[in-house]
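Two folds, back to back.
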Amino acid sequence: VYSTEGSTLSESLKKAGGIPDYALSLLQIGERTGKVEDTCAGLRDYYQKRDELGQSLRSALLYPVIMIFMVFAVVIILLTQAMPVFDQVFSQLGMELTGIAGTLSLIGAVLRQSALWITVVVVAIILIAIIIRLTPAGKGIFVKIYEHAPVTRVISFETSLQRFALAMATMTRSGLETDMAIGLAEPLVDNGEAKKRIGEMHRKVQKNMSLQNAVEESELFSPEELSILSVGFRTGSDSRAFEQVGESIAATTERKINRLVGVLEPVLVAVMCVVVGAILLSVMLPLLGVLGTI
């Protein structure tokens, strides 16, 4: 495939910039093997399925994040707006808030007096986090947090595994040799544990171990996924097998995300109720005691 300037498609895209190295390598292989159309179709499927999983993950986690902000917002409103009212009521009765209620009232007063500075600090922290997130080093920090956090550790591993499986499907469809395909797919994996196992699998393949044995010894895939790959390896349908495994991992990951959200939702609601109830009780119980003596 040549452009109007006589350059190949991969050369033209390389000059244009913004194309990942592994995609350019695949296109070059596709040009040499006459499978440019299959390569482009594989790249399209890879990016489409990767983006679908990413969108699903963002959508599923959006609601818990909103709930967390709502908890903070409700607590701040209680401390800064409701507590002064109770403080005034106690003052009119010739008393003052003490204990937990007094501490909460003091915190509310500090928040009201320093509202501007607190807002500036919070906005600055958010902007700094966004800027750091856009840098390679900052992105690595966020990936590490995502990878090791108890809530997202399994999801991080499986999303990386899905990315690897879809990349292998694209590369084997393009006619790429197994050794080179694994080498190009490995950098696409963010999760450290998955990357480590894929690296070990790559070294075994380089030592002339069959891909099937290397995959089985890597313990990357579930027994069901290994069965799909084994059938694909025996029938020469490697690309289709990896594609099916990628789709299977995507479905499994989505189910786990939905279960996670299903657990987080009632927990966050319960936390909000407990916090709000504790704040109100810390004020209402002394107030009821005072009113009972009148």
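---
second:
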Amino acid sequence: MSSNKVSIVITCYNDHKYLTTALDNANAQNWDEKEIILVDDGSNTITKKLIEKHISKIDILITQENLGVSAARNRGIEKASGTYILVWDCDDYFERDFISKALKKIDNKKTEIVTCYSRWFASHLKNEKIFKPRGGDLYDALFHNVAMGSALFKKKSWEKVNGYDENMILGFEDWEFYIRLLKDGGHVSVIPEVLFNYRNTPDSRNDKANLRKYDILDYIYLKHADLYKENFPQFVKNCLSEQRKKEKYKHQISKSSEYKIGRFILKPFRLLGILE
């Protein structure tokens, strides 16, 4: 195994619209010591046919029934021969120089994860935004978004923490994984450049995760109860801060003209018992 080899693990589930872009950008990475692993997580027929069409762009193809992104990533990383792992979802892509820049960062023995600034865009919308993960250590990871879900890390670190939690099929599996990676020390290093493109598709995993956000938080908080107890004052501050934000937003909505007009229009229906 080359000490500088990077295994790119791409997970795919019915992503026929974006598969070509993902594979082309993976192959375009300006780092020679790499392999491309595609994990087909139970995709439909049209996606499987496209995978076969692009088989020459894939070094290792793994197919499985639909078990979720955590299981798919774990199967891909198990087969990886690289010292470093770069994971990404099939509908996203990195700029071609991400790996070469990330490896300079991870040379630091204290660095466990390398991420970068991200361009969030939607194919069905014209607007886009730049997201800047904050990086940091375990303390930061417990309460904030320290890295994108697609990032570079060491395979030996993945082995040490037994990979992604395959029970986490609702989302935020990357956040929980990062907590375990940083538990014994180390930090997340951020490349201050937009080198990752996150496609916010309709009915995306991120949107689905937000719908079940509190179920996921319950799971993470209880799984890492020891860590949150050690940092209980900050945990309380963080919870109260989130609550204040929600109440402030709710107050702003209730004072808006649109809300008042809506209440006025719906008032007769409530009086008639049609609406509660």
